[in-house]
Design goal:
The complex is a heterodimer of chains A (218) and B (303). Chain A is of the alpha/beta class. Chain A contains six helices and eight strands; from the N terminus they run αββαβαββαββααβ. Chain A has one domain: Vaccinia Virus protein VP39 (Rossmann fold, 3-Layer(aba) Sandwich). In chain B, helix 5 packs across helix 11 and helix 6 packs across helix 12. At the A-B interface, helix 1, strand 7 and helix 5 of A face helix 1, strand 1, strand 6 and helix 3 of B.
């Protein structure tokens, strides 16, 4: 997110951030605060409640219910779909609903699984969790009318990630090279050359388990 | 926070105000650590202090980079953006050092480690106005109730003058193998946020060995005897710091007490605190046995 939001109609930030002292080891939802311009933005969160400790102005609910009785004008600064489609049947529908609720330049953040990841291929039971390829997330966001689409891989999962990696080549290659090296010097790595080739060919980002897609309403 | 990181990079001239945020990796460890990859060869670390000021870490980077220009990232700025303390350094590419490479070291790594300890022993000297024994006593006094005063009071007394004759040397304070790497023949040392919290010589060596041995002083003893996998680390450390092996092991309870005090409530894993206390109790028991033997010998000689 390329960030000159204050010039494009965001209200100015307050100096005070929500306190992190309440649950010092609970960092769930931190990446949403990273991509938001400040902690005062008006946020709708769906799924597991993760945004409260990072934002001061949060409502919880489904975009679907709000779309059925929409506000007079779109007023949300940010919609967070945390591992859920928010009552919709597809990512495209969920993103369209979010688009309708966001004001211009508002941000949508959607966390979900990678459809291609081998360990997740058979987890059909989790019906409401977004599931798409890296390209699938990008395309769905563009089709829903969003721009500045960025997809990040969340390590080890999107619920409480330690690291979030932009899937662009420079950052992804540097991160995965370092991970491969670190594994090699601690526990050893099978198929090291193959893994290394996949990194250099920029295939590794497409095989990560969890993504967080962030985009801006044009 | 992306805006904070981007503004910090604009502040050091890496980005223009109209430039978008380049690709990045961001890690949450209480504070936010961005690694940012603009076009070109260089990359940058931007740390955003969510839990407070980053002055100590900036000072650590400055001192570290001055002493080890090829091994410590060059600090570019400490500034404040939107109320957050923000630190920017140049990135250093490196090969990480894990438990495997620490068990089967190259001569290059041993030289690099010896050089680090020797240079740090002279470059990081400090005057604090407080003696080591006072600082050690304060560290023990801050321990949780499960380490009784009786168990450490005689240890501190025994250390006495010997420890106060050692120089004050600011320690890196987080000298674990995952904060170390190799770049060419230079040891890369990252994460300077605890720099100078401890000034007892050998503290960094102890942290390195403790972290490689599950915080067990007994395991360190057995893994550092002649030819054992970590004997080279002890050799490099004692050569570099000027401590004898006996001195180093006698100071082990002090190192652990200082670790317990420094790591408590600073965003480290709660388990770390438990391991340190367990190691401390073992180390005190071991040193106590040694002192008992010494005292028996002295009283025997007197008789």
């Amino acid at each position: 997110m390329n960030a000159t939001p204050f010039e494009s109609g965001w209200k100015s930030p307050s100096e005070a951030e929500p306190s992190l002292a309440a649950a010092p080891d609970d960092y769930r939802g931190w990446f949403y605060r990273v991509v938001a311009p400040h902690s005062d933005v008006y946020v709708l969160q769906t799924g597991v409640v993760v945004a409260d400790r990072w934002f001061t102005n949060v409502v919880s609910g489904d975009p679907g219910s709000l779309v059925r009785s929409p506000p007079a004008s779109p007023s949300l600064d940010m919609v967070i779909l945390h591992g859920t489609l928010g009552g919709h049947s597809s990512i495209a529908e969920a993103l369209c609903a979010a688009h309708g609720l966001l004001r211009r330049d508002g941000i949508v953040a959607l966390a979900g699984y990678n459809r291609l990841h081998p360990a997740l291929r058979n987890r059909a039971g989790e019906g409401d969790v977004p599931r798409a390829t890296l390209w699938g997330y990008r395309v769905a966001a563009r089709r829903a009318g969003f721009s500045n689409v960025r997809v990040y891989s969340a390590q080890p999962d999107f619920d409480s990630p330690n690291v979030v990696v932009s899937t662009d080549w420079a950052s992804a290659a540097a991160f995965h090279r370092a991970e491969l090296e670190a594994h090699a010097v601690s526990a050893g790595v099978r198929f090291r050359r193959l893994r290394s080739a996949m990194i250099e060919l920029h295939l590794t980002p497409h095989l990560q388990a969890c993504y967080i897609m962030v985009a801006r309403k044009c | 926070m992306l805006d904070v990181a981007r503004e910090a990079l604009c502040g050091v001239g890496v980005l223009r105000t109209s430039d978008p945020m380049p690709p990045f990796t961001v890690r949450m460890s209480g504070n936010l650590v961005f690694l940012v990859y603009p076009p070109g060869r260089d990359f940058y670390l931007v740390k955003v202090g969510l839990q407070g000021d980053l002055q100590r870490e900036y000072d650590g980077f400055c001192a570290g980079h001055a002493a080890f220009p090829r091994g410590v990232p060059k600090p570019l700025a400490l500034s404040r953006h939107r109320s957050f303390s923000t630190l920017v350094t140049l990135g250093i590419p490196f090969a990480p050092l894990g438990p495997r490479s620490m068990r089967t070291p190259s001569p290059l790594l041993e030289r690099a480690l010896t050089h680090y300890f020797a240079t740090a022993a002279t470059t990081f000297r400090a005057e604090t106005g407080t003696s080591h024994s006072q600082l050690i006593k304060a560290a023990f006094a801050s321990l949780p109730a499960n380490v009784s005063r009786d168990s450490w009071a005689s240890y501190v007394e025994h250390l006495g003058r010997e420890v106060d004759e050692l120089p004050m040397v600011r320690q890196h304070g987080d000298f674990y193998s995952n904060n170390l790497g190799l770049h060419g023949d230079a040891l890369v040392v990252l994460d300077w946020e605890d720099f100078g919290l401890a000034c007892l010589p050998g503290f960094d060596l102890a942290l390195l060995l403790l972290s490689l041995n599950a915080f067990s002083p007994a395991a360190i003893r057995s893994n550092t005897t002649g030819g054992a996998p970590h004997s080279w680390i002890l050799r490099a450390g004692t050569q570099g710091t000027g401590l004898t092996t006996d001195q180093f092991f006698r100071l082990m309870p002090a190192y652990l007490a200082i670790t317990a005090r420094n790591k408590t409530g600073r965003g480290y894993d709660v388990k770390l605190g438990e391991w340190v206390i367990r190691g401390l109790i073992d180390a005190l028991r071991e040193v106590d046995r040694e002192y008992t033997v010494q005292d028996d010998t002295v009283s025997g000689e007197r008789q």
